[in-house]
Design a protein that fits this description.
Shape: extended
Structural class: alpha+beta
Oligomer: single chain
Strand order of the largest sheet: 1-2-3-4-8
Distance between the termini: 128 Å
Number of helices: 5
Strand content: 25-35%
Radius of gyration: 32 Å
Number of strands: 8
Order of helices and strands: HEEEEHHHEEEEH
């Protein structure tokens, strides 16, 4: 029994010295906007996806993260701005909106600018990356979207999007005027067939 007591005392001392709290676990959740979010053990968003967009968050350079700045999911300013708007409206909600540091790669608790690259530009001073930025501020009313130009070799917080899901085009429905033209065309075609039939019968009758 003395051995068991000694073992128990040693275990208790170890727990007090090193802590007995279990480490935080990564999690997967679906937020109120229907976006599936995964977090790391620090509670930071690592990925976000729904039926339209899928992205991951990290900090690095354009050259390193986007194959020498040549592999962007978006090729136009408007498409990148739409993705930035999706981040603010559908992903950065609740605690992720009031604490910007809870996005992987972000280090500021007041504001984090998440960049979405869509092209390259140049000036006499050099080449730069064209991006749409989702400005996630701890004050909701200060959230914003803007265009930014950054160095391809500077460390930035990026959202790395997969190619967006293409929404199917709705089946075209003819307008009323189109229907009238189609009906008129069918009527004329039918009348022409009847006349040809009558002429054919007439010729046969007098052969």
């Amino acid at each position: 029994m003395s051995i068991l007591r000694a073992f128990a005392a040693g275990a208790a001392a170890f727990a007090l010295a090193f802590g007995s709290t279990a480490p935080a676990q990564a999690a997967v959740m679906v937020n109120s906007a229907g976006v599936t979010i995964t977090t790391n053990t620090s509670g930071q968003i690592v990925t976000a996806s729904d039926g339209l967009f899928s992205t991951s968050f990290t900090k690095g350079t354009c050259d390193l993260l986007f194959s020498n700045c040549s592999a962007f999911a978006f090729a136009t300013e408007s498409a990148a701005l739409a993705a930035a708007n999706w981040l603010l409206d559908k992903v950065f909600l609740g605690v992720f909106d009031t604490n910007p540091k809870l996005v992987n790669g972000c280090t500021s608790g007041s504001e984090c600018d998440i960049l979405i690259p869509y092209g390259m530009g140049s000036s006499p001073s050099g080449v730069f990356v064209l991006t749409a930025a989702a400005l996630n501020n701890k004050t909701d009313s200060k959230d914003a979207i803007k265009l930014m130009q950054v160095s391809r070799t500077s460390q930035q917080e990026y959202a790395i999007f997969a190619a967006p899901v293409q929404q199917p085009n709705p089946t075209a429905v003819p307008e009323p005027s189109t229907w009238l033209l189609m009906i008129a065309g069918f009527a004329l075609a039918g009348a022409g067939l009847r006349r040809r039939k009558e002429r054919s019968e007439y010729r046969v009758r007098f052969a």
